[in-house]
């Protein structure tokens, strides 16, 4: 499995258990750089946080005592004999010890590499600093990739790195959907700059999310963050604003620790800063009580949360930066169409840009905007005839309705294609051999931003042939484009229900998995049911290929399929998610996914510790 930010990746051959978990956690946070490398790969099989900070490629390994560590590693891989050297790191750097020990990795030769400068645990300046763009990349990768899209609330967020490299790295924002139309809104500022500040921000954000999902009240979350910061030196002193907004009623409960107050821009453009009970930054005075304030955000009003960087800079009076921010925010929100943009960064990005000084941003700037809509969008209802000639009209009306919701183009097109496939299936198959009959299309969004589109006909469903070629793949296409597809057959008629959790995500293409993979994915149709056979290292790209083949072989999930993982050497977390998704589809369709994985092997272990043993038949 691959690692996620804030959690260490598993060691190769890891067999689980509390002792292993403790060991991995200790290695993950060790001050030395630790690598597990295989002879057949250029990237490490495992690397701890310090090693990942340095860069995991072999070309990034340092020179110690005049010897390139990469050459020392190659010698150990070639001879199988351990090596140790001591000497200065680079040109005149601190005394450093390098230990390389042979290690079996995936039944092949490998090595354990430890690079530890003297006093590395207390002086992080001993390590090479990452380039400035690495700081920005680390920060951006830890910010939320999307924001909830709720029918009663328009959310936008933006982060801008300080123009001066030394000041960048610790500001953040986040939102947490809490259910029943409630959402937690958070902006914070970690102490320090650079990658260490970004790391502190990541831990603080993770602690916030964990606390909010247990008890989202502001008092409980700030108490938990305060206790967390008191135990983490790099988090101590951070400031944070946290509030819970009910999008339906406008009720807003909030509290802050050493953070500036939020701005409210009324429907008429008037501005005011909400009163915030004073409280010291996190961890600076453990056990201090939290006073929770209340406000009702009226319909048409907007909350603007911001980090300290938005009001940074010298000013004769302390109120001047706040007044400037209020003026900029009111101007941005008064701009026609400011709250209709499809991109997730507007109007937050416009506000951040508006407070930028001629010299640039003097500190990181994070802005989070929550606008309470004047009215919610009505559900869409279309009653028509199941005729191919009706499909263009369905796409036009649905597209306009989805655009009004604020959906980005990529998600909007995906939903339109999925619904178009459902309608095309009804038009082509439901009334075959008779006059076209009625078809209905309904679309609605619940308070938590889950879109549900239902396509119903009164004809007869015809299951796909065993190998339909280019036909019968409507369900396959639908399940690739939305979160869930449920097919219900009745005595007279078929209902297809498509569901998708809405989000505001960037219009620019997200990073895609590499276009190459060492995994091989094939479909064997010789037996009573199709078997998808996978071999090699299943990375993100290999997982996507596996998902496509599973959906193809199962005719979009309507028929049974088996998955053979006997030849797999690496099974990533992306691959685990694919197995989970197909298992859920099978459950919806009344069948259970059979997965072949060797007993005692790492792939079976990954599936078992991921909780999939109860969802699939492991053989």
Descriptive labels:
single chain, alpha+beta, five-stranded antiparallel sheet, 29 strands, disordered N terminus
Would you write up a description of this structure?
With 619 residues, the protein is an alpha+beta fold. The protein is 29% helix and 28% strand. It has 14 helices and 29 strands. It has a 5-stranded antiparallel β-sheet. A 5-stranded antiparallel β-sheet has the order 9-18-17-14-15, covered by helices on one side. A 5-stranded antiparallel β-sheet has the order 10-11-12-13-16, with helices on one face. The longest helix has 22 residues, at 409-430.
Strand residues, percent: 25-35%
Number of strands: 29
Task: Tell me the radius of gyration.
Answer: 28 Å
Annotation field: number of helices:
14
Q: Extract low-pLDDT stretches.
A: 1-8, 11-18, 341-345, 465-472, 506-516
Going by helix content, strand content and strand pairing, the class is alpha+beta
Oligomeric description of these chains: single chain
Outline type: flat
Mean pLDDT: 80
Bin the helical content: 25-40%
Distance between the termini: 20 Å
Sheet bearing the most strands, described?
5 strands, antiparallel
Strand arrangement in the largest pleated sheet: 2-1-7-6-5
């Amino acid at each position: 499995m691959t690692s996620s930010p804030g959690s260490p990746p598993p060691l190769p051959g890891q067999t689980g258990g509390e002792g292993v978990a403790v060991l991995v956690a200790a290695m993950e946070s060790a001050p030395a750089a630790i690598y597990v490398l295989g002879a057949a790969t250029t990237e490490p099989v495992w690397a701890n946080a310090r090693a990942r900070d340095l860069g995991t490629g072999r070309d990034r390994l340092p020179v110690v005592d005049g010897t390139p560590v990469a050459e020392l590693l190659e010698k150990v891989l070639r001879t199988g004999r351990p090596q140790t050297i001591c000497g200065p790191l680079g040109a005149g750097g601190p005394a450093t010890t390098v230990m390389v020990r042979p290690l079996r990795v995936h039944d092949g030769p490998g090595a354990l590499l430890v690079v530890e400068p003297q006093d590395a645990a207390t002086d992080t300046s001993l390590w090479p600093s990452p380039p400035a763009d690495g700081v920005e990349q680390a920060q951006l990768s830890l910010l939320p990739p999307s924001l909830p899209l709720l029918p009663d609330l328009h959310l936008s967020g933006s982060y801008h790195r300080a123009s001066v490299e030394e000041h960048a790295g610790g500001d953040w924002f986040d939102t947490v959907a809490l259910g029943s139309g409630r959402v937690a809104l958070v902006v914070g500022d970690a102490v320090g700059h650079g990658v260490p500040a970004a790391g502190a921000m990541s831990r603080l954000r993770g602690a916030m999310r964990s606390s909010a999902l247990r008890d989202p009240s502001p008092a409980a979350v700030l108490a938990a963050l305060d206790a967390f910061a008191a135990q983490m030196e790099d988090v101590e002193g951070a400031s944070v604003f946290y509030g819970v907004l009910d999008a339906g009623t406008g009720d807003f409960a909030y509290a802050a620790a050493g953070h500036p107050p939020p701005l409210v821009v009324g429907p008429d453009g008037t501005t005011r800063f909400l009163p915030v009970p004073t409280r010291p930054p996190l961890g600076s005075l453990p056990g201090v009580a939290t006073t929770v304030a209340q406000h009702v955000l009226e319909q048409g009003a907007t909350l603007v949360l911001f980090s300290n960087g938005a009001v940074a800079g010298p000013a004769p009076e302390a109120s001047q930066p706040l007044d400037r921010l209020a003026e900029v925010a009111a101007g941005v929100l008064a701009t026609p169409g400011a709250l209709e943009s499809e991109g997730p960064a507007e109007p937050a990005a416009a506000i951040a840009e508006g407070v930028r000084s001629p010299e640039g941003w003097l500190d990181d700037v994070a802005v989070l905007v929550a606008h309470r809509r004047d009215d919610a969008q009505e559900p869409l209802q279309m009653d028509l005839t199941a005729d191919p000639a009706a499909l263009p009209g369905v796409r036009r009306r649905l597209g306009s309705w989805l655009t009004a919701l604020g959906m980005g183009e990529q998600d909007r097109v995906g939903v339109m294609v999925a619904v178009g496939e459902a309608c095309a299936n009804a038009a082509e198959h439901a009334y075959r051999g008779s006059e076209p009959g009625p078809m209905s299309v309904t679309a609605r969004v619940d308070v938590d931003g889950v879109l549900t589109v239902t396509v119903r006909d009164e004809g007869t469903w015809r299951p796909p042939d065993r190998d339909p070629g280019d036909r019968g793949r409507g369900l396959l296409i639908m399940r690739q484009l939305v979160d869930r597809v449920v097919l219900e057959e009745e005595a007279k008629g078929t209902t297809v229900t498509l569901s998708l959790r809405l989000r505001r995500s960037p219009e620019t293409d997200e990073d895609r998995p590499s276009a190459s993979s060492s995994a091989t994915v094939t479909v064997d149709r010789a037996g009573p049911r199709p078997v998808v056979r996978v071999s090699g290292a299943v990375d993100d790209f290999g997982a996507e290929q596996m998902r496509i083949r599973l959906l193809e072989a199962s005719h979009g999930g309507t028929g049974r399929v088996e998955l053979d993982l006997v030849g797999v050497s690496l099974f990533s977390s992306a691959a685990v998610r694919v197995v989970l998704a197909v298992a859920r589809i099978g459950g919806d369709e009344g069948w259970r996914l059979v997965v072949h994985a060797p007993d005692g092997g790492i792939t079976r272990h990954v599936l078992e510790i991921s909780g999939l043993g109860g969802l699939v038949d492991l053989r």
